[in-house]
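Hi L.,

You mentioned the student needs an example of a multi-chain input paired with its predicted structure. This one should do, with 1068 residues in total across all chains.
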Amino acid sequence: MTDRNQPAHSWEPDPESDSYRRYREAYEAAKLRDVPFETMSGVPVAPVYGDPPYPGEYPYTRGVYPSMYRSRLWTMRMFAGFGTAEDTNARFKAILRNGGTGLSTAFDMPTLMGRDSNSPWSLGEVGRAGVAVDTLADMEDLFSGIDLSGVSTSMTINGPAAIILAMYVAVAEKNGVARADLAGTIQNDIFKEYQAQKEYIYPPRPSVRIVTDMIRFTTAEMPRWHPVSISGYHIREAGSTAAQELAFTLANGFAYVEAAVAAGVDVDEFAGRLSFFFNSHSDFFEEIGKFRAARRIWARWMSERYGATNERSLLCRFHTQTAGVSLTAQQPENNIARVAIQALAGALGGTQSLHTDSFDEALALPTEKAARIALRTQQIVAHETGVANVADPLGGAPYVEWMTDEMERQAEAVFAHLDELGNGSILEGVYAGIENGYFVGEIADSAYRFEREVNEGRRIIVGVNAFTDGSEGEGDILRISAETEEMQLKRLTEVKQRRDDDAVGRALAAVTAAAASPTTNLMPPILEAVHTYATLEEIVMAMEAEFGTYVEKAII
Amino acid sequence: MGEIERANSETESAGPERVGDAPADDAALTPTQDARLRVVLAKLGLDGHDRGLKVVARILRDAGMEVIYLGLRQTTDSIVAAAEQEDADAIGLSMHNAGHLTLAPAMVAAVAEAGMTTPVVVGGIVPEEDVQTLLDAGVATVLGPGASATEVAQAVRDAVAAAEASAS
Amino acid sequence: MTTRTKPSIPDLYRDARAGNRLAIGRLLTRVERGGADADAVSELAHADAGSAHIVGITGAPGAGKSTLVGELVSHLVADGRRPAVLAVDPSSPLTGGAILGDRIRMEGSQDSVSTRPAVDGDAGTVRHKPFIRSMATRGHSGGLALAVPLAVRLFDALGFDPVIIETVGVGQVEVDVVGAADTAVVVATPGMGDAVQANKAGLLEVADVFVVNKADRPGANDVRRDLELMLDLSKVTGQEAEIGYRPPIVMASALEGTGSTDVLAAVADHLAFLESTGRRDERRRHRARTEIEARLAQALHRRVADLLSSPTGVALLKQVEAGDQSPTSVTRTLLDELLASTES
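Structure written out for the whole complex:
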């Protein structure tokens, strides 16, 4: 009789294999959270199962760290920002009280586009989609009462990123916190603006110069700061497929690497502080395959193509946000289920940080209740489901491995195309693809295809084109009062009255001069300017005088 | 392949739409061509989400209309100027950023000020409770995010017909 | 179809002459629709037209024409001119609709988020707003060939100058459209084999000015050289000696902000050449002839269609089908019928 005590197959790693021995060594050296790593029923589980390469081992398909969530859960980073800086400051403090571990800031549309609240373009938009920041004074209000050395702050801004980072540094230093102690990320990914989000100011090349200046600056002076969060989220939201999200994002990453190296920084000096930002959409296994492929591709390219040798340079560490575009206005409570599943995909895909959308976000900015439910969703995944006990638990599943390979294959085809477009340089290929509408065209095609499928009922969206019973009526939505705009305008006037206009004028002239000199780093003159309480738009214009603006070609 | 040519070489077929086949004008020395509805599509303000607008452009093109695509970062002035020069039958605005209560009425007002009766159709993210406010302000129709291709095209045609009926 | 209250053509024309842009827009719609209205516009415009410089600009997709036109328009406006642009784009052959997106890049920096001032001209120059109209080809055979010249004549009659026709592509339609202008500008860009394509399409023979756009890119000088070579090799060389004009090749780059004034200068030089040699009148004659030919062809085409669907025609076609008559003999019969009916 077969011995039922011996399982037919051992799913646990082979303790004799070299790779597993190496893994165990690394794992043992890691500091673990003080929780039992057992199932709900008390069954102890191993940190990883199946075959190598194991997490923390090149090419990191199965995870960037050996001990993954056993050491540290993903950062539960909730996006916040609306109204005045004071409103957001209150929301920040509530998040920290509720157990959130990182601050994430959304800025209003005028701020994202480098315009002041009193610009004619800002009418009706001040403080609506995020917090309004016109001067250093607003940044001071935003972080008032928060010890910046004790938090990790993520700032989601691109075109005017250099100025916003300078403001953050200025606030910290005015409160006695050294810039070298600041931890966080600034999105600062300008490529994807031309491809998807359209929040650009200047043409591509000068914009990339600003990015490399920031990379040089943070490499030298802010070692805990991530100067670029290479983002696929927006590319996906604009309608790309999962593979396009993966491919365009990593290609942009390669392009930044080439640009920074060309600007004189050694790859291993900065690559370790590049991070990524992906979408987590509804097709569960496609997303997981995408995340795993991202790690594998980045590691290989950084090592083989760009010659990075420091392990940190090879790690594709990423933040994930559940797909905003998947949220429905109809039967909004269904979005709680969607977000939970998308969050689960992020956790199973090994994300380092996660933002879960609020269920009412299809209609407007989230209410506090909805934002809390979104955070609780993450906490449930982290603490109740047991998925955090085992790294890459789906690794080895045939479908998942196949999906990972497929995502990689499609991405490689895109890289080959860009390489060709750029005559052997991904950076030049990306510039060319922006210029000739390649990215925008691919995304528009995918978006249109999806829309047709939904329209024709071939793709079911619950509550929208099927199961529509219950789709009437709406709950509370967050209203930004018109007062916000008035208050912000008053604040701006006040600050402009108090400041020394001569100092402002001199500082702005210095910014323009720096812009005209390609090898001068823009960060120090921008820092000077923010200290004088020059406004965001004034500093933007000081650079625009040199760089010009950008009007995109309409690719439908 | 680049520029508008890529979209115009699409072989999708939603059935051609003739805005009324022109009566054969035999005596005329210039042959008649079928009329097409001309629609200006744009986004006001700073918002950069143009995915929906681009999808609508293709939908209307597939429905046989001529889309004058202005895209992002337009002002009421630039849209009115285009509508005037292009003799547009309708203006389509895509809204995402909660600015609709300010921007949509401003568009309607700008059209009237220019002495035109072009209907303004709004699509995108508009909370249910604001729809009536917009309609009261003179917006012709408000389309929700889940509107189908057929609904979008029909809404434009209806808005144009209604505007012509009240103008004559 | 448009059932809106129709002001009469003379009323619209009068308002348009007075500068009412709404009226101009509506007249252009009537022109596109064709029919009796278009005929009426043609009669009215004829009397007032004849002074505008008509410039055709074409080139392969992606050549950056719209941006170039935008730059040209900016400069023209700053110089006190009153430009009109007709931007022609293809309609979908299947649905008949079209996406016309060229105008945003043509409007220059007037409406961008930037607060930089637009190109400055002399203080005190009256700055006219350019008129930009997008026109789709609508797919009807011959339709475009008549709508464009009529629209151009209308702009001319309303005092716009220059009138720029911008089309995309290097096909026969473009050759015809651009060839009917006073000055034909062909735009090529590096790395796309444009020069060869232009040659194949016969554009080299109608081009009066070449622009190598995006000249900041590698390969720009190769394009210039290719064009020079082709000009040398083609029969244009024979004409060049005869006429005394060889199309210049202008380098332009929007990125570097160069070349657009050179393009304007080349275009102006060509006009001067046309006037001093009396060739401008020749162009006008050629344009008129082309238009009349097109109208005649249209009218005859309709007659032929009518004839073929008439009882006589249908019966004859059936005979061919049955094998009782040959296509050629049936054609002979029908032609006689056609010529007889036009005489009566």
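You could point out the following to them. The longest strand of chain B covers residues 66-74. Chain B has a mean pLDDT of 83.

Best wishes,
N.
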